[in-house]
Amino acid sequence: MPSSNPLSSLFGRSPIGPIQEHMQVANDAAQLLPAFLEAAQDDDWKLAEEIFKRIGEAEEAADKLKRSVRRHLPNSLFLPVPRTDLLELVTIQDHVANTAKDIAGLMLGREMRFPEKLEKHLLEFARACTATCEQALVAIRELDELLEVGFTGREVVRVEGLIKELDKLEGRTDKQSKALRARLFKLERKLYAVDVMFYYKVIELLAGLADSAERVGHRLQILMAK
């Protein structure tokens, strides 16, 4: 049955698929972080390096998709949403993959492991951050449906609910980040100052991962409002 999507008839295929695929591989990179952190906490740097390579492969795939979208996204008045908004969405999604690689790269390079007293809380925080990324992907998977219905009707209500849940998950990571920093602060005097600096940096990057995922949802919300 022929597609009723005007983008398909005008340009052969919608640009939405590659944008969704881009978010998928960005999320793939993020979802590897808890396993990486567990390997680091176990001092299993061989496993950590293997996971880092997989994160790097996902980040590289995201970069290729990002460049492809930028080259092939139609520069046309027939796009149902502004081209610049779709490009901004891809840029934000790319931050998810880049941040995941930055976290793993920093920790691998320094063979960092957090103090044992923080281990449980660190892993819980990391899993919450990656759950936020997963929720962003769930929302982006609805982008093609939104396009089909012209960003109106029940689908908009459904996606608004997904974004609301995304905001809720990110809010949880904010609280966990604050609590983890407070626990680290209590241990500072017993730790090497340079190590403490990098512990805070990793916490900051993890929080940034969740923040980027939330921004994906906010950008989707902007698309629906236009």
3D architecture notes:
This is TIGR00153 family protein. Pfam families: PhoU_div. Belongs to the UPF0111 family. The chain is elongated and about 60 Å long. It has helices at 6-11, 16-31, 33-41, 45-72, 83-110, 116-140, 143-148, 154-187, 193-225. It has one domain: Methane Monooxygenase Hydroxylase, Chain G, domain 1 (Up-down Bundle), CATH 1.20.58.220. It starts with 5 loop residues before the first helix and ends with a helix. Helix content is 82%, strand content 0%. Helix 2 packs antiparallel against helix 4, helix 5 runs antiparallel to helix 9 (193-225) and helix 6 (116-140) runs antiparallel to helix 8 (154-187).
Structural class: mainly alpha
CATH fold-level assignment = Methane Monooxygenase Hydroxylase, Chain G, domain 1
Shape: elongated
Sheet bearing the most strands, described? Answer: none
Per DSSP E runs of 2 or more residues, the count of β-strands stands at 0
Beginning-to-end CA distance, first to last residue? 30 Å
InterPro entries: DUF47 (IPR002727), PhoU-like_sf (IPR038078), Put_Phosphate_transp_reg (IPR018445)
Family: Belongs to the UPF0111 family.
Protein name: TIGR00153 family protein
Pfam family, one: PhoU_div
